[in-house]
Amino acid sequence: GSTYSSKVFRVTFLTLAVSVAVPLLGVTVLLDCPIDPQPISLKEPPLLTGVLEPNTKLRKAERLWENQLVGPESIVNIGDVLFTGTADGKIIKIEDGEIQTIARIGHGPCGGREDEPTCGRPLGMRVGPNNTLFVADAYYGLCEVDPDTGETKPLVSTKTLIEGQKLSFVNDLTVTRDGRKIYFTDSSSKWQRQDYLFLVMEGTDDGRHLLEYDTVTKEVKVLMVGLRFPNGVQLSPAEDFVLVQETTMARIRRFYVSGLMKGGADIFVENMPGLPDNIRLSSSGGYWVAMAVVRPNPGFSLLDFLSEKPWIKRMIFKLLSQETVMKFVPKYSLVVELSETGSYKRSFHDPNGVTVPYVSEAHEHNGHLYLGSFRSPFIGRLDLQHV
């Protein structure tokens, strides 16, 4: 009797499975997909061995001003005063432990993802030569903020046509020591910051990625196009080249802005162990790179698995929201230090993002790494003497 009942069970189960799967498939075919993903070929991720060997060093970071600010993406300092921009559109000053809002580029209401375009989202931030703040706002463009009065002066608006196109997702900036030139990234000409996950998953190379603004002539030039999600930027200490993080491709590009190679470009670091977000100078003459997502090897990298399977990406985004998909992204935090030539010097890990999840930037000041995070309600601080 048992073979008969198991047969009945199998038939019933299959009938049920088919009756569920067929309509689901039908619905999936009919549903619109918000993205048109392109296949991307990534190399197998580098092995996490040697200086990249997993550790828990990032867990030694302390959380500062917890629940007093939200999503401090980028951090700068003027002396011991810190400045950051937050997810609710504010430019914040932290002096003697006191938090003060000094400016707001957009206007309220602020809070949800859908408010971002009017509220504004300050991302990259830098200090100019006469201690003014230069800020890249994802929706409003480049502006200059007086750190004392909070007075805000727009420099490059996203409404301005640059070579026939508006800026859509202004992300990061780096400034020459004399304050004359600002190099900045526009991550996409199709997607805005609120849809950054669409940008990563679509894998398109539609942004005009590296631009140069001359603060004297007020001219904007497009220097590089055709990168997949250009993100953080950093001038070299000698100011002869700019490094651009190409997030979706897990690599760093180099564009020469002076010297014999001027106008040329090459790859500075290829096939990184994660998707690079911001890049900043380290005191040793190298660079700190914060990884938005890690590509574990050994292990399973969802990103690598999906990279050449656009059809699966289509299915996912037909059925799930960006917020839901984000829940499947492991909260592995990783910061690496590169030498001036792009080799790995050391790495700090927090394998489950226990202390500081989603590190977007590592800013070195006074023997500490200040850790920005585009989603966390605090700033992390790691004492470099004790890791």
From TrEMBL:
Strictosidine synthase conserved region domain ranges (all copies): 171-259
Location(s), subcellular: Membrane
Matching Pfam families: SSL_N, Str_synth
Keywords associated with the record: Glycoprotein, Membrane, Transmembrane, Transmembrane helix
SUPFAM superfamilies in UniProt: Calcium-dependent phosphotriesterase (SSF63829)
GO cellular component terms given for this protein: endomembrane system; membrane
Keyword Membrane: yes
Xref: InterPro entries: 6-blade_b-propeller_TolB-like, Strictosidine_synth_cons-reg
Membrane topology: Single-pass membrane protein
Location, primary (coarse class): membrane
Gene Ontology molecular function: arylesterase activity
Span of the signal peptide: none
Family membership noted in the UniProt record: Belongs to the strictosidine synthase family.
Protein name listed in UniProt: Adipocyte plasma membrane-associated protein
Species, as recorded: Aegithalos caudatus
Phylogenetic lineage: Eukaryota, Metazoa, Chordata, Craniata, Vertebrata
Gene: Apmap
